[in-house]
């Protein structure tokens, strides 16, 4: 009796491409390495953490994946079209197509150490990276997204530790739960859960 022959399955994202902003460290690095492990060719961006980006690419390649790093200062939205042109060229060289399957907007910055340290310039910079850049990244990605392509926007609900240390503690009913999501002591109403509570 002959044994059934099984062919190994291709990784689920084989042949797909992904652009992960802020992919040189933290959550972005984890996302980039996971996507590559699942078979995607990954472009990851970095600004200040170029060494982290190089380490991420090296780790992906050691495990048999495909990744490359691109410098991107997302404070300057005018640099975003050039970022995509660089990604297009490299995706075309590596995969034979410049289509994009996944855009992961993950880049962020701390903005300032504590509330009393904030300045108009640091506020503008934080807003530029967290709000304006994702908007224009999506705009540039739209004409490149493959059929079934996806955009994922990631944000952090909590400020960095230094900023949290300078903030007064919220009332117990508004403290973050185990997932970092703010809870509410209010009851659900037609206006939404917890409406009318402070």
From TrEMBL:
Organism domain of life: Bacteria
Pfam families named in the record: adh_short (PF00106)
Biased composition (Pro residues): 158-173
InterPro entries for the chain: KR_dom, NAD(P)-bd_dom_sf, SDR_fam
Stretches for region Disordered: 158-198
Entry keywords, A to Z: Oxidoreductase
Residue span, Ketoreductase domain: 16-188
Similarity annotation: Belongs to the short-chain dehydrogenases/reductases (SDR) family.
Name of the protein: SDR family NAD(P)-dependent oxidoreductase
UniProt organism field: Streptomyces parvulus
